[in-house]
Amino acid sequence: MSLRVARMLAAALPLLLAAGPRSAAGEEDKTAAAVQAGAGWLALVDGGKYAESWSEASEIFRGSVPEARWVELAGATRKPLGKLLARKLTSKTYSTSLPGAPDGEYVVVQYASSFTDKKAAVETVSLMKEKDGRWKVAGYFVR
Questions:
Q1: What's the pTM?
Q2: Are 111 and 85 spatial neighbours (Cβ–Cβ below 8 Å)?
Q3: Average pLDDT over residues 85-95
Q4: 98-119 pLDDT, tens per residue?
Q5: What is the arithmetic mean of pLDDT over 117-141?
């Protein structure tokens, strides 16, 4: 994914949080499904399976960065962190729009994570509901 797309999706989190809680009946189920899909995708990244994570990402993700470039970027981002030690879900926010992205269904998930070479990190995973109804990763950012 291009850094621009990742930054746009990650930057949307504060805007989503400022919108406050939502009460739509199905949002909790959608959010839970997105979090589960994101966890599966993160397991691929955690295992160094970057090419597979690219294949399992959303159409927008795959269209924004070629597979070889993603493998390069993911490795350059994750390898210096070392092995994942812990990951704790800290927030999950449902929205139907994000800045710089087409309207649709999105869930932005944040984790407090710890790695062998970076004790405190924040991972942000943005997921979107694809046309086939499946939740797929549209953005990933670590700071």
A1: 0.81
A2: no
A3: 97
A4: 888 889 999 999 999 999 999 9
A5: 96
CB atoms closer than 10 angstroms to residue 46: 16
Under 8 Å between Cβ of 41 and 58 = no
Tokens matching residue 130: 């694809």
Domains of the chain as residue ranges with CATH: 3-142 (3.10.450.100)
Residue 63's H or E segment, with its range, is helix 59-64
Token pair of 24 as six digits: 């739509």
Residue type, 104: G
Give SS3 for 39.
helix
Two tokens, residue 49: 């399976």
Q: How far is CA 111 from the centre of its chain?
A: 10
Categorize the per-residue pLDDT at 14 as very low, low, confident or very high, splitting at 50, 70 and 90: very low
Residue count of the chain: 143
Single-letter amino acid code for the residue at 129? K
